[in-house]
């Protein structure tokens, strides 16, 4: 059975933004008197706020102020950090190759819908993306499968083994795997290769450009990909 679609994470996979998100979270926590270093937050980037905040905020306070903290972080990131994010090399060319192969490119991000829409403009791929899902389409963010389940629904529920994900974190691979999707890992988000392999990635590349350069030998070019 032929491959049908390729579903991409955004932050750390297509966009060089992980350090900026970590810094914004650390600054937001500090604003509320919660001392957390950016390097500690960095290892949690890839999760949505609903999964990230409980790592650093006590449950009682999270119930009381969680929405306020996340809203502050969101506004802070847009105001002070968003202008500094940039695409990794090869993103548009990779999407063009995927289109040329007759595959459907899609996005599945733990970010908010407005962020995902803006990121497509920054990446220069808005005209190439067929389907996009965000945290707004799911009850729970990664590493839960909800975002990938939503993207599969938007893709028309393709048969198992016809969709592959591309992501930079173990949370991507875990979430995709729970939805029955195998994951190709990329190292540009900063997670060690061993962590991506342990999470079940079927192949690992440096970044989008490396995946493009090795496309013909990658799972994206095979008639059927291994299961997660």
TrEMBL record:
This is Phosphorylated carbohydrates phosphatase. GO terms for cellular component: cytosol. GO terms for biological process: DNA repair. It comes from the Bacteria. The keyword Hydrolase applies. Gene3D superfamilies: HAD superfamily/HAD-like, Putative phosphatase, domain 2. The keyword NADP does not apply. The lineage of its organism: Bacteria, Pseudomonadati, Pseudomonadota, Alphaproteobacteria, Hyphomicrobiales. SUPFAM superfamilies: HAD-like. One of its GO terms (molecular function) is phosphoglycolate phosphatase activity. InterPro entries: HAD-like_hydrolase_sf, HAD-like_sf, HAD-SF_hydro_IA, HAD_2, HAD_sf, PGP-like_dom2. Keywords: Hydrolase. Its EC number is 3.1.3.-.
């Amino acid at each position: 059975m032929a491959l049908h679609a390729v579903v991409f994470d955004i932050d750390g996979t297509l966009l060089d933004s992980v350090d900026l998100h970590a810094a914004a979270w650390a600054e937001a926590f500090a604003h509320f008197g919660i001392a957390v270093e950016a390097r500690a937050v960095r290892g949690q980037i890839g999760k949505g706020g609903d999964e990230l905040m409980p790592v650093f905020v006590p449950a009682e306070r999270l119930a009381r102020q969680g929405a306020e903290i996340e809203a502050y972080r969101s506004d802070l990131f847009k105001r002070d950090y968003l202008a500094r994010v940039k695409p990794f090399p090869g993103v548009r060319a990779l999407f063009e190759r995927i289109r040329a192969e007759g595959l459907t490119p899609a996005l599945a991000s733990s970010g908010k819908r407005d962020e995902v829409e803006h990121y497509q403009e920054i990446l220069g791929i808005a005209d190439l993306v067929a389907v996009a899902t965000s945290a707004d389409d799911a009850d729970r963010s990664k590493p839960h499968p909800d975002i990938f389940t939503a993207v599969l629904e938007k893709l028309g529920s393709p048969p198992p083994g016809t969709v592959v994900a591309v992501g930079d974190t173990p949370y991507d691979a875990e979430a995709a795997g729970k939805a029955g999707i195998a994951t190709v890992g990329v190292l540009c988000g900063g997670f060690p290769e061993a962590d991506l392999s342990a999470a079940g990635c079927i192949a690992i590349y440096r970044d989008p450009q490396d995946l493009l350069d090795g496309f013909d030998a990658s799972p994206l070019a095979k008639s059927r990909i291994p299961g997660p």
